[in-house]
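#structure-requests
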Amino acid sequence: MFSFTVTVLSPAFRSINAHKNKEMGRHDDLWSLFYVLIEMVNGSLPWRKIKDKDSVGLMKSTFDHRLLLKHLPQDFKQFLEHIESLTYTDTPNYQLL
């Protein structure tokens, strides 16, 4: 068994922990995946055109992420609720996702 981490360089897809320069865990990878999926389905993210990475991080930390799920299948809400509940040490429920 092996593991790997993909680093997403664009601030648009970074987790809030990445913006805060905190140690990242598996849940941070899932936050990045969530942002990528939302952009693919919706066409953009509210902070996509903001150039300053600190401003993007601040917007994400105060943004109600449920607003991104308008008109999306219930599965996206379940994904969001699960990753919101995770901490650094938690093992994500990949079966659920």
